[in-house]
Every structure is written in C-alpha cells, then in structure tokens.
Specification:
Elements: H1 5-13, E1 22-25, H2 30-37, E2 45-50, E3 61-62, E4 70-74, H3 78-85, E5 89-91, E6 100-101, E7 105-109, E8 113-124, E9 129-135, H4 142-148, E10 153-157, H5 166-175, H6 180-199, E11 202-213, E12 218-220, E13 224-227, H7 248-255, E14 259-262, E15 267-271, H8 274-286, E16 293-296, H9 303-314, E17 321-328, H10 333-346, E18 353-359, H11 362-372, E19 376-378, H12 382-393
Parallel strand pairs: 15-17, 17-18, 18-19
Antiparallel strand pairs: 1-7, 2-4, 2-7, 3-5, 5-6, 8-9, 8-11, 9-10, 11-12, 11-13, 14-16
Helix pairs in contact: 5-6, 9-10, 10-11
The structure holds guanosine-5'-diphosphate and manganese (II) ion.
C-alpha cells in the first residue's frame, strides 16, 4: 500500500523523526488556503508540494501551466502556487506521459538546506533481511546516484533480531561527514526511522532528501513510505488509503474479491488460481501476445463473480480480445459457462473470446457454450488456445 508524503511524515513524526511543520490543502479557495497558512509565520518561505503517489515532483511539470510539482515560494505567493497545482495534471518521470491529477497540496515550512543526503530502509530479498541504504549525494534520483557516485552509497544489512545498531547508525552519520550535535541528531533520526519501519510493517521507507539544515540539525524533507499489504490486518490504515491514486478497475475488483492487476497489453485474461493466471500470462507472452491484465477469480468463484470479472476487464479500452482459462475444481466448468454466457449477452460482447476449460463438468459446460450461439471459440489445448486469441487480436 502506498501513501502520500504528508501521511508518511505524520507517521514518522510520531516516531520522533524530525520533519518540517506542514498542512494539507484540498481546496483552492482563498479562505481554505488562509486557514492552512495560520500555522506558518508570515514572512517565512513555504514549500508547496503536490501530493501524488509518484516521485520526481520537483522536476515534474504541470500539463496546464508548465509549473513544477514542488515550489518554494514567499508566504504571500502560496495561494498562487497552490492554484497552479490543485486539480491540474502533473507529469513526472514516474507518472508516465499521461501524468496524474493532483487533489491535495502539502504546505510545509521551507527549510534552509546545507546538504542533501539519501536514506532508505527496505527488505532485501536476496539477503533475506532489511537493509539501510545511505548516500552522501541525496536529492536526485537514486538510480542516477548509483551510476554516477557508486562509492557514495553504503548498504548495511540489518539483523532483524538485533535491529539497527548504534554503530551502524554512526557509520552512516560518518558517511554524511556530520559532527557534534548534527551527528547525534542524525543517529537518533536513523534509529527512529528503523523503529518506524518495523512498527509500521513498512516494506519501504525512503527519505530523499534527508537534509542538514543551516541551523545544523537533520530533518526529513521528503518521505516515501510503502506499507506491507500482508500486514494490513494488524493496523488501522484504512484512512490512509487514497482510492483516487489507484486504477479504478483494481478498486472495483477488490470490492468483488477478485485479484485484478491492470497491465499494458490487449488480451484480457480471466483465470482461476494465481499460478494458472501467471502461466496463462507467460504463454501469451511466449507466443508473442501481450496480456491486458492479471485476473484470478479464485477457486470458488460464483456466477456473479464471473460476470463482474467480465465487466471489469471490458472497462479497459485497450482490450481487443478475451482469453478465459479455467481449471474446474471447486469452481465447476458449467458454473463458469453460465457466467460467461450471461455476461457476454448482457454486455453484447463484440470482442473475440477464446475459452479453454478442463475439469469438473466440462462436458456440460461445452454444451452450455455451444447452445448459447455466442461467437466464441472453445479450444482444449492451452498452447493452441493462446495462439488462437493472439491471432484474433492481430
Ligand atoms: P520529489 O521531487 O518528488 O522527490 O520531491 P521532494 O520532496 O524531494 O522535493 C524536491 C526537491 O525540492 C528536494 O530534493 C529539495 O532539493 C527541494 N526542497 C523540498 N523542500 C524544500 C525545502 O523546504 N527547502 C529547500 N531549500 N528545498 C526543498
Ligand atoms: Mn524526493
């Protein structure tokens, strides 16, 4: 689960990670902005930051006006900056050319920056433990930093039973060439960040940049936090969820208990079981096709769920054909067939449809499909079925 910068900073603040004072605005009226500005001192500069689930906002550009997604402005120019962002579309390196609409803007106290560092904590699958990654050269894109200054990056594997130890945090503070109070403040900040990572069940905390302020303290100017979906049941994160940031088809599928992930291809897949769904996508790729989605309707799907799944995949305008691959176990083939027929008739399906079924009640299912007089193709062999749908969408 991804959350916004302002939410991430609120969470981190509760672990005593230093973050600048900030407020979120969702309206562009003068009154709403005036209310938000009450917490700031007149005369100070304010960082105005677009809230979207994508990085690169500082260099990102709004389609409508060419303004940037992070603007540091004088107090009296905040309303103008907010209006240049709210409800406009921000294009960054991470959003793709279509960009993302901004619905929230975060106002934070502008900090006078001496130096920018990079810190992240994530789970390293190869090492099978959390790692802390730090670089002396923060602010920019970490992939770029890794290419340009590989020697400036430190990767510390963390023993999950011991946590981030003081000597490791100090190693990072030395890497940052900090001294005195700044050094101490950095060590505390890192220890607290790691505590937050564990307590929150985060899969990623990335602070880019962590800065040394002109006053000589350390502070997180940006924060990206990803929460582990598998641990959501242990927390109360519901209000952190922002449905606008998600693919509307994925939100809809979640409500129907369907595992749906939108992809870029043109062959929609409807499959039961995650393993079979992966294999189906692989075989489509293998024969030169491109799947429009991953969709696992689960082992015990009902007729209604099949119909809903059908409707969700058809909402994707890129879909040029549908491939149904079902192994009838708990979900019987005839239940599936009824679902398909009903759904195809109710949406007046015009796209090519290839159905491959095996398992319980497959004969009865074939009969239902053939008696429906729908223009679908029933193919038994998986390889042949995949090639058939690929040829159909060409
Ligand atoms: P991102 O581009 O989406 O990663 O957004 P960031 O929050 O990292 O902001 C981009 C850049 O703006 C940062 O790397 C900083 O250089 C700069 N920036 C953000 N907030 C402040 C601030 O309060 N003061 C100063 N001086 N620079 C800031
Ligand atoms: Mn950043």
């Amino acid at each position: 689960m991804n959350i916004h910068e302002y939410q991430a900073k609120d969470l981190l603040k509760s672990y005593d990670v230093p973050v600048p004072l900030g407020v979120c605005v969702e309206e562009s009226s003068s009154e709403a902005i005036r209310q938000a500005l009450i917490v700031f001192q007149t005369g100070n500069r304010v960082a105005v930051k677009a809230q979207i689930h994508a990085g690169g906002r500082g260099k990102g550009i709004f389609k409508e006006n060419g303004c940037h997604g992070v603007q540091i402005v004088d107090y009296e120019h905040v309303p103008e900056a907010v209006r240049s962002m709210l409800f406009n579309t921000l294009v960054t390196q991470q959003t793709g050319p279509e960009g993302k609409q901004v619905r929230k803007v975060y106002l934070t106290e502008a900090v006078k920056v001496q130096r920018e560092f990079y810190v992240s904590i994530l789970v390293d699958r190869v090492r099978q433990c959390p790692v802390v990654i730090a670089s002396f050269n923060g602010g920019g894109d970490i992939e770029e930093i890794a290419k340009t200054y590989p020697e400036s990056i430190l990767t510390l594997p963390i023993d999950p039973l011991l946590g981030l130890r003081a000597f490791q945090a100090k190693k990072i503070a030395y890497l940052f060439q900090l001294e005195g109070e700044a050094f101490q403040s950095c060590v505390r900040c890192l220890i607290n960040l790691y505590k937050a990572f564990v307590d929150l069940d985060a899969s990623l905390i990335e602070i880019n940049p962590l800065v040394l302020t002109e006053e000589g303290t350390v502070c997180a100017l940006d924060a990206k936090v990803q929460l582990d979906d598998n641990a959501l049941f242990r927390h109360n994160y519901a209000e952190l969820d922002d449905p606008y940031e998600k693919d509307s088809k994925e939100v809809e599928a979640g409500k129907q208990n369907l595992n749906y992930i939108a992809l870029q291809g043109n062959i929609a897949c409807l499959v039961n079981g995650a393993g079979l769904a992966m294999a189906t996508m692989d075989i489509i790729q293998h024969f030169g096709g491109s799947p429009a989605n991953f969709l696992d309707v689960g082992g015990g799907a009902t007729r209604e769920q099949i119909e809903n799944a059908f409707k969700i995949i058809l909402k994707d305008p890129n879909v040029k054909g549908i491939f149904i691959n079902i192994f009838g176990g708990i979900l019987k083939c005839d239940t599936l067939a009824e679902g398909i027929v009903h759904a195809a008739q109710s949406v007046q399906l015009k796209l090519p449809l290839v159905v491959r079924m095996k398992g319980t009640n497959v004969e009865r299912a074939r009969k239902i499909l053939s008696e429906s007089h729908l223009p679908l193709m029933s193919v038994d062999d998986l390889a042949e079925a995949a090639q058939t749908i690929i040829n159909q969408v060409k």
